[in-house]
From TrEMBL:
This is ABC transporter ATP-binding protein. The lineage of its organism: Bacteria, Pseudomonadati, Pseudomonadota, Betaproteobacteria, Burkholderiales. SMART domains: AAA. Pfam families: ABC_tran (PF00005), BCA_ABC_TP_C (PF12399). GO terms for biological process: D-alanine transmembrane transport; L-alanine transport; L-isoleucine import across plasma membrane; L-valine import across plasma membrane. It comes from Polynucleobacter wuianus.
Amino acid sequence: MNSAKSKILEASNLTMRFGGVTALDSLNLHVNEGEVLGLLGPNGSGKTTFFNVITGLYRATAGNVSFRGQDLTDASAQEVYLHAITRTFQRSRLSLPLTVFDNIAIGDNRRLNTGLFFNLFARDQFEKEYDRVVEQVRALLLTFNPQLAAKIFEPVASLPMIDRRRIEICRALISEPDLLLLDEPSAGMTHDETAEVMNDILQVRSKIKPFTIILIEHEMGLIQRMTERCIVLNYGKKIAEGTYDEIVSNREVQVAYLGQE
Ligand SMILES: Nc1ncnc2c1ncn2[C@@H]1O[C@H](COP(=O)(O)OP(=O)(O)OP(=O)(O)O)[C@@H](O)[C@H]1O
């Protein structure tokens, strides 16, 4: 039996410089289809920059990114999204006066018809399309977190932090990505809240499809529970790679990241 795992994403010699700062320094890494990969490292080690380069927000100074063998190095954010790669951000990027539905539906712009003629004049078709999207968002919420489904038309401003984080994750999931990039989902939440949201993600993953995840996270308990493999960065370079147990017993990781002498 061939047990070799296929790669969904590969970065080769990926480099990102901001003036004199080298945020990613000839980084080589790959992500396997269907795995949950933890991306760790001290503050400023290049984790979010990696996401920003992968998702087309920054253009790499040098190196390559390929997704299922296709070159995405110079792809725009929209092109990356069309390849079924979505992400969340460390800081909330929700529109607070809008409803849960609005904030999630916007994540499916691949399928939404945004043409002026369609939206202003094709009213029958528009209403059918609207009903379809409502059902799609409701179905995702019912799988993700049924209590939130009951709040689908409430403004986000009225909801607690944990629900806002769920909405951000649902916005990234509504387009049914193959690769989900989660940038520190525990930020601003308690330990228990984070555990709840992670359970919701695992639930969706087991019920809908086993999409691949790259998880940036400082909370080590979460990394231990969620990931199959981890990569540790320091100064934009990979300093360790392996299972949670392997990386926490790695001397360089202990000194650079875990604060042990
Ligand atoms: N847009 C930018 N302009 C200039 N420097 C930047 C920019 N984005 C990131 N950097 C720098 O690149 C380095 C890596 O930052 P990055 O945010 O990727 O680190 P990180 O590992 O995600 O950190 P944290 O864990 O604090 O989120 C830092 O020195 C940061 O100041």
